[in-house]
Design goal:
It comes from Botryobasidium botryosum (strain FD-172 SS1). By secondary structure, this protein is α/β, with parallel strands linked by helices. The chain contains 19 helices and 30 strands. Strand 25, helix 14 and strand 26 form a beta-alpha-beta unit.
Length: 604
Amino acid sequence: MTSSSPSRDYVSALPEDVLLELFSAYSEDNASLICASHVCRLWRELIHGTPVLWKMMSLNMMASGAPNVRAAYWLDRAGEHPLTITILFPEEPEEEQPPRRKARNVMHRRTTELAMLLCRHMGRWQSLSIENIPVANLLGFLDICRGETPQLATLDIQIVEDERSSYPIAIPFGMQVETKIKTTFAHCIPLFSSSFGLRVRSIDLSINVDYATQSLLNLLNTCPNLESLDIYAHYGGLMGDTVYPVSHSHLTVLAIRGIKDIQGILNSITSSSLRKLDLDDFCWSQDMVDSFEGILQRHPSLTDVSIRAVNHVPAGAFPNTPPPPSTEPLTLANMVWFSVQRNTSPLHPLCRRVILPHVKELYLSAIPSDIVHRMVASSPHLTTLSLDELGPTSSALPMLPIPTLTRLQIEGTLDFLSYIHNIPNLLSLELAPSTNGANMLEFGTSRPFVTFLQQMLGQSHRLRGLSLKNAFISDAELISCSDSLPMLEVLAVDSCPSISDAFLRALAVGHSSNAGETQRLPRLREIRLFNNPLISSGGVLRLLTSRSALASDTNSAIRMRGIVLFDRLYNNERNNEAIRSLGMIVPFHEDDLDVYRWQSRELV
């Protein structure tokens, strides 16, 4: 190829609209856009002459050169396009004074200069994000940037965290047009003007509520059209009992995490539109139980409820003589997603009364089996059932048909499986049994794990995903089970001490010595293996090689993907590289992010 490379001419010959489409992919990366403009005169003229490419600016306050100069460069080229502005502040230096004082002075000067420039363009702000800004710098920035922001749709402010973590910050922006605004704040609580608060639809707060109760209530009162509220108290904290009623007729999503005494805010909020309620990391008390029941009764519009309390109950949270439980049924007519997890005992009387005629997904933890049975029986449209460490039942229960069920997940005791039948539409089955010292039998039962598994598979001929964790099952038993799963596409085996390479050989193409015998799991396309001590990298490699060869030669098998985390004794890096070349993931250690992603993803 000569110096006047034809490939360069090909690029130059691309139509301008194609080039602009390519450049737009770099518009969020300021440095890449500048580099592209230096390639040739044509590209430079096209980039600098297209204002829409300059509407997104990311300003690192520690980068070389004054940020206001870089911002002016962008603003000159953005024309009249709405602006997306991101301002990134650095971590403060750990050195003692005077280096820290000097760094703060530099940041203060740069913040002031930048604010004086940006304030002249507030009418074009569409998105403003300020990250890791010291509170003094933020106050200075907002003191300069006051006025109308008619196009602002997203506001994200994260101040530097300190022990207080909940500064009240007045946001001096006005809004006279019908624009919906989404806001996010960390370590501070905003105070909006009345015109701006009317336009706010979403608030996401990360705060320390011990210092913020009154500011939080003031905020809610200035946002009457709020649709989504997410409060996260990262250090925990208490709201206290002094909470005043707040009516939000448009509020549809309420999420509160970390506040220990949330009954006050639950009692204060009323919305005829509330659909989703997510409460996490709070403490149970008799008042909290009453408040939770009250919010269910006041908001029949609820469709999605998730409850996860802390694992301990504070002393004195419940009276020595609790009030007699109500026996009146509580019908949640619109509920489609219902989850009660972690420390559920205070809710058992309420759960006993709940009827869920339209629920589709049910997630229950540490609840007596008879209560679970009643809830499932009242749910004729159930598609997903997840059960964790169910409590014992005092009497025999009738059989429980669930013909609509497509996903079943059970951890802990498997006794509840004895009552389930008629599940012809089951597509995904995940079992993680508790085991005794011999690692053979279920706690509280004399039935081996394989009996429960065979019972489920006998009713689930359409099963497409199967996950086994901590299960004592032999190679021969799992091979026998696999013969009844012609539709299986995804198989996960996690910490099963008796599964070995023998099972993988049974799945390998060409393993059977009987002519014409059907290949096991012919539709298997994904396999996930974690910490199975008798499975080696060589065994996995033989399985993948045989399946890949058939997929390439005859198209009668599907090339497999997935992940394998080996026990150290059976780990061979040479084989691992070969496995990776066939499309599988082999993490280098069990803390790898890929392990978490694959263990937590659904089968189907």
